[in-house]
Amino acid sequence: MKKEIDTAAWWWAQQIFTNVSHKQLIQFKDSLARVLENKFRGHWDEKAPLQGNAFRSLMVSPYTPVDEALQKAAEELGVTDLRSQLPFNQEIIMWVDPGEVMVKLGNDKRITLYKGSPTSRRETSTPSSPLSAPSFV
Fold first, then answer.
1. If we measure between CA atoms, which residue out of 103, 73, 1 comes closest to residue 44?
2. Position 134 pLDDT exceeds 60
3. What values do phi and psi take at 37, rounded to 5?
4. Among residues 19, 75, 100, 136, which is most buried (max CB within 10 A)?
């Protein structure tokens, strides 16, 4: 679970906070990782990775409230209006599942940020590292 959560937290931190210090970026990433770990506890089954898939998703859309996990992580750093920080003009959904982290941008583009083995924890491939994941804004 740690690799998947770290991948997700890094990606969101880099996408949302583009004009902050490295220290602030790390603080948000760590905060979001804690929030996600607490949220996913009890909802992570490596033998059935798609079970609970919707619960482990994070969504940002110009037309809906900011995802609760993202907002909570931002509030831990004193950012109360995360909506004003969001550079997205399209819907973004991220699924954090055992062995895979995937992002859907808009209606048709899907990007796999992490693909590994949920049972062995051994990474089989990494299409894009969370530290160097491209910006999609």
1. 1
2. no
3. -60, -45
4. 100
- Whole-model pTM above 0.85? no
Torsions phi, psi of 53, nearest 5?
-55, -45
How would you class 78 by CB atoms within 10 Å of its CB: exposed for 0-12, middle for 13-18, buried for 19 or more? Answer: exposed
Looking only at the bridges linking them, the beta strands covering 109-116 and 57-60 are unpaired
How many CB atoms are located within 10 Å of the residue 120 CB?
A: 10
What are φ and ψ of residue 11, in 5° steps? -60, -50
Q: How far apart are CA 42 and CA 113, in angstroms?
A: 23
Query: Under a CB-based contact definition with an 8 Å cutoff, are residues 116 and 3 in contact?
Result: yes
Q: How far apart are CA 35 and CA 52, in angstroms?
A: 17
Query: Are the beta carbons of 58 and 96 closer than 8 angstroms?
Result: yes
What is the rounded (10 degree) CA torsion for 60, 79, 69, 93? 20
For residue 88 the two structure tokens come to 């997205």
pLDDT in tens, 1-28: 889 999 999 999 998 887 788 888 899 9
